[in-house]
Amino acid sequence: MTATVLRKELHTIIDIVPDQSLPAIKPLLTYLADDYWKPVIEPASPEEIAMIDERMKDYEADPSSFIPLEKIK
Which pTM does this prediction carry? Predict the structure, then answer.
């Protein structure tokens, strides 16, 4: 069984659990998903650092060529 199929089955089960039972299963699901919310952040590779440095130089040369994040949202 693939992870996608299993996730769909679990979603279906959660959707049909009676409302009064949801508080009982929430701690278990929270516990099982805990590692998901703690991703491992790896240091940037030399290539990634070079790309960041290049973009920083581009920005410093012409800040108006960049779109602020507030305008993207």
Answer: 0.44
